[in-house]
Target: Acyl-CoA dehydrogenase
Amino acid sequence: MAVQRLLPTAEATDLLALTREIARDELAPRAAGDEAAEKFPRDAFRLLGQAGFLGLPYQEEHGGGAQPYEVYLQVLEELSSAWMTVGVGLSVHTMSCYPLAHFGSAEQRSRWLPEMIGGELLGAYALSEPHAGSDAAALSTRAARQDDSYAVNGAKAWITHGGVADFYTLMARTSDEGPLGISCLLVDGGTAGLSAGPPEHKMGLTGSPTTPLYFEDARVPAERLIGAEGHGLKIALSALDSGRLGIAACAVGLAQAALDLAVDYAKQRQQFGRPIIEFQGLEFLLADMAAAVHSARATYLDGARRRDAGLPFGQQASVAKLVATDAAMKVTTDAVQVLGGAGYTRDFPAERYMREAKVLQIFEGTNQIQRMLIARHLAKA
Model:
């Protein structure tokens, strides 16, 4: 069922209508098949690029859509309700463009950003390492300055779009000064010495490749340093605040899809001579599911509106990520319960929704990390 949205402009209303059309006609019909085949839908991202979706929150002067984050996130939600791999992929791509858009020089933005958000290229965000996940400051991949380039050596882990991305926003160590020794580099996907390992075998989001990345004396031109040396961790954490809102929106989209499926099934399934939606036990379960979805949507919209107003939104981003992804896990699990035995089969997407929901509590900062961040904000208040 279509979500009733309060959108700020007529343009935003038209954009959401287009999003729903693409989600309904182009994405939803193939999601189950491509996920089962573990097939990455690169063509779907080209379609989104042609529609202008790969640069929605970025400046018009560089070819972006200049949409408020409030609107961009609702686009993400709609796409995720049809196909989670595509929604998460768009969120990752948008976050991969963030460091250049917000910390790059005017010359760098003019040179590279139009192509990155123009629709043909797809990005990836390379922060995590085998021994540096939640502890991002512990990363060890090194970028050593050699004349007019950096020689990069090391390994990254859990990279969404690894091996298929056209560019990687890389955080690497340029000195031994702990958190102050990390820098941000914009790496072309075809760089010699850069390679991707085999995709991880995951329980969900099987259409989205997640791989390690290996850098073996990969030469990155010094002009591709974003911001100053040593500013990489600050850039990375700033990007993650916005990225967490993106994941929250994706989680709400998945939860909404699970709720819609459960309600439709409960209306049609009959037991004891009447639809099961008329039994109070299921009525209350569905009501709790709906309340969780509505509440989660409110948290990400609150964070987005603060971001759009230029206000601090880090705490709100953590709250949204925590609340929305926990809600997605619960709502998708309950959807399986509503469908009963049918929910445990692949004849319905409920089991896929449940598998996909789990990773939302893990990436972009685990939900345990979000609780820690929220508590730190409270301590500073």
Observations:
- The mean pLDDT is 97.
